[in-house]
Specification:
The chain has about 190 residues and is mainly α. The protein has three domains: about 1-55, no CATH class; about 55-135, NusB-like (N-utilizing Substance Protein B Homolog, Chain A, Orthogonal Bundle), CATH 1.10.940; about 140-175, no CATH class. It has ten helices and no strands. The chain has helices at about 5-20, 25-35, 40-55, 55-65, 75-90, 95-110, 115-130, 140-150, 155-160, 165-175. The radius of gyration is 18 Å and the shape is globular. It starts with a helix and ends in a 13-residue tail after the last helix.
């Protein structure tokens, strides 16, 4: 049975987490190996880069809604939750119920059926409170920026020693913004 875009993305995220592998090289080979269509390849790419760029923020919401269990979440289950939370919060074209359903299915397909109820409940809670999610605490500017924009705390601290808070926040936000492909038409006589 062929892999879906989400299954392929989960596989890539797991390798990045476990092996410290770079997503670029993994993405190209995994997409080719899974024989994904152009549309699924684009979805897989967006999921991988999106989750990696927003991992700390996704983890903040996962931990906020899994009171008492956040330290007990298996790494692969956390990867599934990150994929689903990213889709719920950042991908307008994917209906939230589909992201929840796919997260539960990924648990079942990866022999994690025992976690599927937890995944379902946590994701449904995030969907139901999507318009009133908890704020990232602002008491410590370095931690706030590190979580909100998912950049290493050490890097954020270094940037804050050289730039003011607002400039640093703008820089981190821009770094997480997907680039827009621009075309230029040059007419020659």
């Amino acid at each position: 049975m062929p892999q879906t875009a989400r299954e392929t993305a989960l596989k890539i995220l797991g390798r990045c987490r476990r092996d410290g592998a770079f997503s670029d090289a993994l993405l190209a080979s995994a997409v080719k190996e899974a024989a994904l269509s152009e549309k699924d390849s684009a979805l897989c790419t967006r999921l991988c880069y999106g989750v990696l760029q927003n991992a700390a923020l996704c983890d903040f919401y996962i931990d906020s809604f899994s009171i008492g269990r956040s330290g007990k979440i298996e790494p692969k289950v956390r990867d599934i939750l990150r994929l689903s939370v990213y889709q719920i919060l950042f991908m307008d074209k994917i209906p939230p119920h589909a992201a929840v359903s796919e997260g539960v299915e990924l648990c079942k397909k990866n022999s994690l059926s025992r976690a599927s109820g937890f995944v379902n409940a946590l994701l449904r809670k995030i969907v139901s409170q999507r318009d009133s999610l908890p704020e990232v605490p602002r008491e410590d500017g370095t931690s706030y920026l590190s979580v909100k924009y998912s950049h290493p705390r050490e890097l954020v601290g270094l940037l804050l020693t050289h730039f003011d808070f607002d400039f640093t926040e703008g820089l981190l936000c821009a770094n997480n913004t997907p680039y827009q492909l621009l075309y230029s038409l040059i007419l020659q006589n």
